[in-house]
Write a structure and sequence with these properties.
The complex is a heterotrimer of chains A (265), B (337) and C (242). Chain A has eleven helices and two strands, in the order H-H-H-H-H-H-E-E-H-H-H-H-H. Chain A has 265 residues and is mostly helical. Chain A has one domain. In chain A, strand 1 and strand 2 form a beta hairpin. Chain B has 337 residues and is mainly α. Chain B has one domain: Arp2/3 complex 21 kDa subunit ARPC3, CATH 1.10.1760.20. Chain B contains twelve helices and two strands. Chain B has a two-stranded antiparallel sheet. In chain B, a hairpin with a 6-residue loop joins strand 1 and strand 2. In chain B, helix 4 runs antiparallel to helix 5 and helix 5 packs antiparallel against helix 8. Helix content of chain C is 38%, strand content 26%. In chain C, helix 7 links the parallel strand 7 and strand 8. In chain C, helix 5 packs across helix 6. Classes of the chains: A mainly alpha (265), B mainly alpha (337), C alpha/beta (242).
């Protein structure tokens, strides 16, 4: 599967996830966005050796994922890039930071190793939190949250249109690639002679399409804002949701939850 | 070049959000001044185009590998720097949400590193300056290559600074820079060439679509109201402020939130073995919910580690179990209704 | 009542090539008119002029009694529904419901009323089941029906359809014809699908090279082999078999 096809598949997964949850909107997308940002902030702020403290943050991911019935299998594919990136940045830690953290026989764990693993775990958690967010509220939820946050309406319109035409253009590019490959067997990408024309054609078509889109908007009374549907989310349930997770996550951040529970037994 | 959430400290992320937010506010104002509502759909669809186009592999002659085009430069060359910048923010936001490229926290950094330099330095300074006395094929190629290489270098350097300021790697500055810069020099050249090819195609097919093309005619007024010197001055100040803020944040508290946590809970980095745990234990003792702690009786890391692992297993097991139970009842109550 | 009244219309795009020459045309309320002609005859341009999407014409155009000029555009567009040739561009929001609701919401209707209008439009097009469907997941035929629904939800007096049957398979085309016949509003259908005109319009206007060549009963014009061939068209397939 090439990149274009994979991108189309990724969008399908998110849209399906979103469609499956239509009508279950007890919690306003803004609450979820706030909780997600708070989660990421707290996750990132864990000290670099505090692996067990950080580990407790997994609770939010598990609870949300299971409660909202989101498949973790699809999420795994998204983790690899960040694992590689965090690994590359953190690779120096075990080499530099060689102080021994824990030792058993010939097996030794250094502080550097702990900090590298912590970093990678942070990466996974943050990606997973964003994934759960987009799977529960979808792009439209994000846009309506942004409007509630007073992000300019023009920008939100841009986002909505971008999201709508993303898949159209991805598929168009994929069709062009196929047509190209059929006539140029054995070539992996676009030959240097066709660089400009290939992407340029797609660009010109995109601009023409934007022109028609604008006309279609005008003819139906567009005056500068795409008015979304009114959300039926409960005010109190949204507030309670945000308050609960804000406190719970702060608690996990301050108290070493795993240690405390372990000490009970 | 997308930075992940885990690689930025909240203080750095906040600083970069502020900088990118300011640039966005400025761009929004400029775009509204233009009063061209028909441009909004073009910005949306062009953003989607950049997205799709960045996934096309362009074969680099003489090598087996392939390159991609540079979004910031291309968007700005068609839409102008401010509108291009807004489109790029959209692209980066969609990338982080739909494809896990970058992250919500790192978005401010990514917008700055990729969109700001690409649109404002690449287009407002380099492109505009090169096109001052009219457009031509050669000038488009020169501006694209120069713009891509230069802005990518600035972006890569910012990534290095932001990562180091976040204090998450032991990598020394010199090593980091000497890895980042040359790689991005090569990438910049390739991106520049591809971007140039696309823009030359547009120039030959429909030149009126390019930013500032109409301004080249003698009867038309210049497109931007900002002079070149003033642009440079504004950019220099922006760069200085950013640099200052980032280094300030880095030198005092690499991690603002962590620092405040320390003030609140007395826990910071684990300096001595079990240090943090005893500190945390003190809070526990104060609140007196749990009288006995494993890490209190045995100061060894082994003890605490094992109790941590065991505790972790219990917590995860409980939360998963409770969730499934609740979900079971959720399903039932729905059916009852 | 004259829903459309065009008098001596001449139009040229900025590149100075005249597209329409001295066109006069009156469409009465409730009429269904087929606007036929070969590619490039000026059909689409004529439709676009009616809703003010192209500027700078000579002569006069009035829609629903209002002259087509800048100050009247908002009111004209509230009366006229324009269905674009490319449904992909017409449907710019993510789901069918959202897109059909776009117009009514812009006219400031209350959400209950918007919902009523949307459901009514979907019902008329027989696509209630596609309500929450993602647009990119629909077939070409479904998209066409949905894009007509986006116009119906505005309850237009006049419907302008640009090549509505293009890229539809026979079954979808049949459905579309059936639905178009159910809609009572004034319709102008620009197309070179003569069989569809035969099935949907009583009156036909033949345009060629920017001029009206013939204006009359569909049954007569579409049987006139010589006239059609002289203007780059052919007899409808159903006629050819006879």
């Amino acid at each position: 599967m090439n990149k274009l096809q994979k991108a189309v598949k990724d969008i399908h997964i998110v849209d399906e996830g979103e469609a499956g949850r239509k009508g279950q909107g007890m919690v306003h997308p803004l609450s979820r966005l706030v909780v997600t940002v708070w989660y990421i902030l707290l996750t990132v702020s864990f000290p670099k050796y505090d692996l067990s403290g950080l580990g407790a943050m997994v609770v939010y991911l598990l609870v949300t994922g299971i409660w909202e019935e989101i498949s973790f299998k699809e999420a795994l594919g998204r983790i690899w890039p960040v694992l590689i990136l965090a690994g590359a940045v953190g690779i120096a830690n075990p080499l530099v930071d060689k102080k021994v953290y824990w030792e058993s026989g010939s097996l030794a764990v250094t502080y550097g190793m702990v900090s590298m693993v912590t970093l990678m775990l942070k990466g996974i958690f943050c990606v997973m939190a964003s994934y759960l967010l987009i799977m529960t509220v979808g792009m439209e939820g994000i846009c309506s949250s942004l409007r509630s946050l007073h992000v300019p309406r023009e920008f939100v319109t841009i986002l909505l249109l971008m999201h709508r035409y993303l898949i159209v253009l991805l598929k168009e590019a994929e069709r062009m690639m196929q047509a190209y490959r059929l006539r140029a067997p054995g070539q992996k990408g676009i030959h240097v002679k066709a660089w400009g024309a290939f992407a340029g054609q797609l660009l010109l078509r995109s601009i023409d399409r934007a022109q028609t889109v604008y006309e279609s908007m005008l003819l139906r009374g567009y005056t500068g804002e795409i008015i979304g549907k009114r959300l039926v989310a409960g005010r109190w349930s949204s507030l309670c949701y945000a308050a609960f997770w804000a406190l719970a996550l702060a608690g996990i951040r301050i108290l070493p939850v795993f240690q405390i529970v372990g000490s009970l037994f | 070049m997308h930075m992940a959430d885990a690689l930025v400290a909240p203080a750095v992320a906040g600083t970069m959000y502020a900088c990118s937010g300011a640039a966005m506010g400025y761009s929004m104002k400029k775009v509204r001044l233009e009063n061209a509502p028909e441009k909004i759909p073009v910005m949306g669809v062009m953003g989607a185009f950049v997205f799709a186009a960045q996934m096309i592999n362009f074969t680099i002659p003489g090598t087996g590998s392939s390159g991609h085009l540079c979004g910031g430069m291309l968007l700005s060359a068609v839409l102008g720097p401010e509108a291009g910048f807004l489109s790029m923010i959209g692209v980066l936001l969609v990338q982080c949400l739909l494809f896990a490229d970058g992250g919500l926290l790192a978005l401010g950094c990514n917008v700055w590193n990729m969109a700001f330099y690409g649109c404002f330095v690449g287009a407002l300074v380099i492109w505009k300056h090169v096109m001052k006395n009219g457009m031509s094929r050669k000038k488009i190629i020169a501006a694209s290559i120069l713009g891509c290489m230069f802005t990518l270098q600035m972006g890569a350097f910012s990534v290095t600074l932001e990562t180091l300021a976040s204090g998450i790697t032991e990598l020394p500055f010199g090593v980091f820079v000497s890895v980042m810069q040359p790689i991005h020099l090569a990438i910049g050249l390739v991106e520049g060439l591809i971007t140039a090819a696309v823009l030359v195609f547009i120039y030959e097919a429909r030149p009126e679509l390019l930013w500032g093309y109409n301004a080249c005619g003698p009867e038309n007024a210049p497109v931007g109201r900002m002079s070149y010197k003033r642009t440079i001055a504004v950019l220099a100040i922006a760069a200085a402020v950013t640099g200052g803020l980032v280094s300030l944040a880095a030198s005092s508290h690499p991690d603002g939130l962590e620092w405040s946590m320390e003030q609140v809970a007395g826990t910071a980095e684990l300096e001595a073995e079990g240090g943090a745990y005893t500190a945390a234990g003190q809070i526990q003792e104060a609140t007196a919910i749990l009288p006995d702690y494993a890490w209190k009786s045995s100061e060894s890391v082994t003890g605490t580690s094992f109790s941590g692992i065991f505790g972790g297993a219990v917590v995860i097991f409980l939360s998963v179990g409770v969730c499934y139970m609740l979900r079971f009842f959720k399903g039932r109550s729905v059916k009852h209704e | 009542m004259k829903d459309i009244n065009i008098e001596d219309l001449t139009f040229a795009y900025s590149n100075k090539i005249e597209v329409l020459h001295h066109i006069s045309l009156v469409v009465e309320s409730g009429e269904s008119v087929g606007l036929i002609g070969a590619n490039g005859a000026g059909k689409s341009t004529l439709l676009k002029l009616l809703v003010g999407l192209a500027e700078g014409y000579q002569g006069s155009i009035a829609l629903g009694g209002l002259r087509v000029e800048k100050k009247n555009l908002a009111r004209i567009r509230a009366k006229a529904g324009y269905v674009f040739q490319d449904s992909e561009s017409q449907l710019f929001l993510s789901t069918v419901y959202e897109d059909v609701a776009f117009g009514p919401r812009n006219y400031g209707l209350a959400e209950e009323e918007v919902d009523g209008r949307v459901m009514e439009a979907l019902r008329k097009m027989h696509i209630e089941d596609l309500k929450d469907r993602q647009i990119y997941r629909m077939s070409g035929g479904q998209k066409k029906l949905a894009s007509i629904a986006t116009i119906l939800s505005l309850e237009p007096k006049v419907m302008l359809l640009d090549e509505p049957s293009i890229a539809l398979d026979p079954r979808n085309r049949r459905t579309l014809i059936h639905i178009l016949n159910e809609i009572r509003e004034t319709k102008v259908i620009a197309t070179h699908d003569l069989d569809m005109v035969w099935d949907t319009c009583e009156r036909t206007v033949l345009i060629s090279a920017g001029r009206v060549r013939k204006d009359g009963k569909t049954r007569e014009i579409l049987r006139d082999k010589e006239l059609l061939e002289a203007n780059g068209l052919e007899l409808p397939l159903s006629m050819q078999r006879l």
